[in-house]
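A favour between colleagues. Tell me how you read the following sequence-structure pair.

===
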Amino acid sequence: MSKLRALIADDESVIRMDVREMLTEAGHQVVAEAATGDEAVAKARSERPDIAIVDIKMPGMDGIEAARVMIEEEICPVVLLTAYDDPELVARAKEAGVFGYVTKPFEERDLFPAIEIARSRYEEIRGLRQQVSSLEEAIATRKVVEQAKGILMEQHGLTEREAHRRIQQESMNRRKSMREIAEAVILAANIAGGKG
């Protein structure tokens, strides 16, 4: 496992100390500790750790809610610590997108595999989100280019291939993306047609 920057959140200082010791002995760095969920979220936002190890039951915002915020804001994956194996808590943790769940009392052999799996799954999901974002961008660009090609074909009597080549050529000449050129063509057509 690569060396990680970790945040530990537990309202029991003894547990924080135990987890800190396990992590530092394994060569990881504890960059922040918190005793409440609110404090954990604030420190996660400022420190941007690689992993957060968070107790479920804490004063104020509980660990599941803190985990939800960290995951939604794409700060880091979260492994929950709990003395409870209540099915309702497990369901809430799954719903929040938690990547690991370790019950107390635990040992290194329980914690480190959970951390490794959490990091791996988190990176996998981030990669998928980036792919989805790229695909959405490509689809949006294609729609705009198709619309611009249609305008050029209608206005200048071009074939689809010629219209595409014209947008491509302008893109290279002006050092702008094909999407930017296509958007300019659409804007010009709207202004000329009195739609702007």
Summary: The longest strand covers residues 29-34. Residues 108-156 form the longest helix (49 residues).
